[in-house]
């Protein structure tokens, strides 16, 4: 193989390693986003349950007319 082809393959290999590292980082970020989404969804369910429970416990009265 001539020197140009060797250099081209070396450059290609370096670019592929960079691409692999970028994809791995992207994958980690997607996993973090998925975990965050799960946590937010879980907290939203908890808050909705708390507010629903509070609404059921609260009795609303008609304001008495002032004469």
Which stretches of 5+ consecutive residues score pLDDT under 50?
Answer: none
Number of helices: 1
Helix-strand topology string: H
Strand tally, please? 0
Mean pLDDT: 90
- CA-CA gap between termini: 103 Å
Q: What structural class is derived from the secondary structure elements? A: mainly alpha
Major beta sheet summary: none
Helical amount among residues, as a percent range? over 70%
Rg, Cα atoms, Å: 30 Å
The global form is rod-shaped
Beta-strand percent range: under 5%
Organism: Phytophthora nicotianae (Potato buckeye rot agent)
Protein name: DASH complex subunit DAD4
What does this structure look like?
It is a single chain. By secondary structure, the chain is mainly α. 82% of the residues lie in helices and 0% in strands. It has one helix at residues 3-57. The radius of gyration is 30 Å and the shape is rod-shaped. 0% of the residues are buried. The mean pLDDT is 90. This is DASH complex subunit DAD4.
Give a quick rundown of the structure:
Helix content is 82%, strand content 0%. By secondary structure, it is mainly α.
What distinguishing features does this structure have?
single chain, 67 residues, mainly alpha, 1 helix, DASH complex subunit DAD4
Describe the secondary-structure layout.
Blueprint: H1 3-57
